[in-house]
Amino acid sequence: MDIDLTYSGLAALGSGLAVVGAGLGIGKIGSSAMDAIARQPEASGKIQNAMIVAAALIEGAALFGIVTTLLAVFK
């Protein structure tokens, strides 16, 4: 078995897991934010700002995961 092929397969698996994890996290944040806005419409601005910050942090973590897996392949 070629070691480069193994690294490529593991990197693809790692990138996929990072993307799926980020999608699930952002979906959970959006769902919770919509529930919170439905319960307290007057606080929608604060809830929306907190949701955007949290989604950006999750997206950054996913991007970090993808970059590290690509670095493992193209070392």
Can you give the mean pLDDT?
89
Question: How many beta-strand runs?
Answer: 0
Order of helices and strands: HH
Task: Assign an overall shape.
Answer: elongated
Count of alpha/pi helices: 2
Radius of gyration: 17 Å
Q: Level of helix content?
A: over 70%
Note the gap between the termini: 19 Å
Q: Note the beta-strand portion.
A: under 5%
Structural class: mainly alpha
As residue ranges, the low-confidence spans are none
Q: How is the biggest beta sheet arranged?
A: none
Describe this structure in words.
The chain is mostly helical and 75 residues long. 89% of the residues lie in helices and 0% in strands. The longest helix has 37 residues, at 3-39. The two termini are 19 Å apart.
Relevant terms:
75 residues, elongated, 2 helices
Q: Brief overview, please?
A:
The protein is mainly α. Helices cover 89% and strands 0% of the residues.
Chain-wise SSE layout:
Layout: H1 3-39, H2 44-73
Helix pairs in contact: 1-2
